[in-house]
Design brief:
The chain is of the alpha/beta class. Helices cover 29% and strands 31% of the residues. The protein has a domain of 61 residues: STAS domain (Transcription Regulator spoIIAA). The protein contains three helices and six strands. This is Anti-sigma factor antagonist.
Length: 129
Amino acid sequence: MLGVAAYEPADQFDVTIGLRGRWIVVELLGELDLTTAPRLESEVTAALDMPGDPRLALDLAGVTFCDSSGLAAFIRLWRNVQQRAGEFVLLRPQEYLLRWLEITGLRSRIDVRDDLADEDTGLADLASA
C-alpha cells in the first residue's frame, strides 16, 4: 500500500522590515510558498501605510525556495506600490529565482538590483522612524 506524505509547511520563514535611507527594506529568510506568502503580503502592506510615496525593496538573498505563490505576492506588492506612485525593487535574488523572473517575464517589468547603491547599508528599525 502506498502512503501519502502529509505536506509539511516551511520550518522557518522570517520577515524583517526596516528602513535603509528612503527605502522600506524587507529582508526575507526561508521558503516563500503557499503557506508563507500571505504573511509576507500582510506584513509588507501594513508597512506601506507610511505617509509619502513608498519605496519598497524586497531583499531576496535569504529566500531558499519560491513557488508561484511567492511570485504572485511579488506582483501584488509591486502593483500596490505602483498605485501609490512609489518604487519597487527586488534585491539580490538567487540564480533559481532570477531564472523564474526571466521565464515569467517579470524581470523586464520589475526592477531587479544587487543593492541600493545610493543608500546606507544599515537597516534601521521601522518603528523608530
